[in-house]
Amino acid sequence: MKRCVRYLVVTLSCLLAVITLGVVWPRARAPLPDSIDSRLIVNARILDVANGKTLPPTRVLIERGVITAIGDGLEADSSIPLLDAGGRYLSPGFWDMHTHALQLSPQLHLPLFVANGVTGVRDMMGCPESEDSLLACSGDKRAWTKAAAAGTMSSPRFVELASFYFDNPEMAPDQAAALATTYHERGVDTLKVYNRVAKPAYLRLAAEGRRIGMPLVGHLPKAVDLNEAVTAGQRSFEHAHLFVRHCFKDAAAWRSGALDGESPTRLAERMVAEYDRAACDKVFSLLRANGSWFVPTHVTREEDARAADPDFLADPRLEYLDPLSRWAYRDDLKATSARYPGVEGRAALRKYFDHGLALTGAAHRAGVQILVGTDTGIGGFRYHDEMAWLVRAGMSPAAVVRAATLDAARYAQADDRFGSIAVGKVADVVLLEANPFEAIANTRRIWAVLLGGRLYDRDRLDSLLRFTRDQAASPANWIKLVLGFLTSPTSKEL
Q1: 53 and which of 48, 214, 306, 412 could share a cystine (Cβ 3.0–4.6 Å)?
Q2: What CA–CA distance (Å, rounded) separates 158 from 169?
Q3: How does pLDDT run across 71-97, given as a tens digit for each residue?
Q4: Residue 272: partners with Cβ closer than 8 Å, 6 or more residues away
Q5: Is the pTM of this model over 0.85?
Q6: Could you give all domains of the chain from N- to C-terminal order, each with its CATH number?
Q7: Three-state DSSP class for 57?
């Protein structure tokens, strides 16, 4: 008996020591860019994203992180280094308009964005309380943006911060309004709505958001008609479910809950087969007139459609996810496969995915403003997948690059400083080996990234990839993630 007790004490002591070590183990710092924020880029072909044109090779002068001159005859002070682009293509940095940051994102996610040319992100979920051990809160993201701009941290800029999501169906309208004021005081920019919020609370929240200058963003709640939501002023709508569910002849019955008894497979089949084109045409016009934005995140619906695909499950890029996140990701796919079982379920999900692509193309042709977002753990890589899906949906490569750059900056009302290669703009740029206007796959062929004029050459970008992969494999980070979740106010909400 004494021997068993001794063994148990030793085991628990070792376990406690491992956990303690994981908690106190210092967080690693990602490789940094060149410290110099001024340079002269020569022999660069500027991508005119506003007009979809490629300009002849020229010179671009960057001083203190800002583009100050463009032209063939430019010369720089001898103290300013020269960067020969070798005829490569100079694009504005890409912005991912649907991301989520954790406290450990500086180790696990943010360097991966930079390595993939993403210099700006819109964060779509804040903290339920003022501080959080799992989620990054507004103060964290503001500090990270400042550090990225100063070159002391490898991170994209956070270009907009959403609140924690409103999803409680029991929340009263006045409670929703009061919580909006609380989030406003914490420094977030927008109010995120989710699936289950009741219509009265939604409408009150929209009114309060207009009053305090915090527009609604996020999902379309099931209880709210899309036309009503656009009229109420929701600024952005996320995910390719949006038009599939709205442009369905029985959409009103679905919203009311009358179709809840149908099998998920049958309902997905009906939403595709019973397409209501007139409903789509009407809401497209309304979205265009109201200046609303659509962020389809087709990569998330691809995950549904390929949930049982062995090749998809074996994606080698998943090694950039920590084991806990990888397990959660695969568990989600497994749950999707169980919800839509067999050959019939897989076929329904594929048709649903393809229908969503077609409707994004139709929305684009009707003038709806589209943005590029991922909403996935390996967002840096999947960002380029999303751009490819948008081309498959019917957007031209030039239109997708514009959506990823200038249109994203326009959405954030920051196109006076970001989104194109022009004098006075911040030097967040990407040098590409080949022209993405000719083939969208060329956005993956990154030769260099500059953030605020500071250079990540190819060696540094490769170092960021190695760093992220190594951090994903770090047991100290796994422990921090688990303890962060267990002690987070978020765990009570999820």
Answers
A1: 48
A2: 30
A3: 998 887 888 999 999 999 999 999 999
A4: 244, 348, 351, 352, 355
A5: yes
A6: 123-411 (3.20.20.140)
A7: strand
